[in-house]
Write a structure and sequence with these properties.
disordered N terminus; 3 domains; 32% strand; 13-stranded mixed sheet; 3-stranded mixed sheet; 20 strands; 341 residues
Length: 341
Amino acid sequence: MRPAAAHNMVYAEGQPIDLAIAMQAAEWLTTLMSGQATPAEKTAWTDWRQSHPDHERAWRHIEKVSGGFQGLDGQASRQALARRSRSMSAGGFPVSRRGSLKALSWLAAIGLTGWQGARSQPAQTLLADASTTTGQRRDITLPDGTQLTLNSGSAVNLRYSSTQRLLQLVQGEVFISTAQEVGQPYRPFLVETAHGQALALGTRYSVRQDEDYTSVAVEQGAVRLTPRHGGSSVIIHAGQASSMTAERIAPAQTVSPDVWGWRRGLLLADDMSLRDFLHELSRYRHGFLGCDDSVADLRISGVFPLHDLETVLLSLPDTLPVKLRLRTRYWMQVEARTQNS
């Protein structure tokens, strides 16, 4: 389980770091990405990095997970150029109106809407050890041979030690094929989410974290679920799925292999409500995608390619009594079709 103070901590290069420092690094990244950083700001950025080892570590990590920025003039930023023309906050970064607006707009775009939130998930997503963007899937092999597949918009941290193998699911969904532990002593493989832990018992399984609950589906072997805030553990077996909140675990149910269709780039719908169908599609598409209550309970079945969502959406009026309303490319509402539409 996370320590009590975890809501103020994120991780950089495998070690905990204060959230405030992570956010300072994020704002510096915003300033430098804008292409409008002044010589004084570049000098201040260098001073900030050199003022504490945690600052440098936070910067290296955020630069790495953001893809690297070859355009940054690192040599120039180390020169003593101009005297700082802006006041500095106690954290060591500019607090000018221009810089603040740039930071707010960029941070909002990637989900960093505040310095603190429920377990600081937005900041943890930005600083995660591995992540995927919307519409992207990614295969990863861990040091022990465990195989991961990250679904769209997902992020994980890896915390291996001499006593356990811990995977923190910060956001989204991951499919795991655990490797057999050969070292001594045996280290259990745990997946930790905001709602509890899933202990692998020699298995292949998926873990998905939503806002209110975590769902687990087991393809092979078994998984022991333990809620974060107490309650009895429950073991679910191959062909079963369950969900848990921080307080309780739902009864296990039989699961269809359709639940793992995303690994093949497919959404498999079997008499799914239109509301749920659009919610699933929205995980792989930028922007807003919703429907009116009047059509939310319409049912849909089929196999839909996740790489061509626009075609899938445009085909909906051919099979259902609906029409599409678009305000922009990134805003779509599905509404009831009338006789005049």
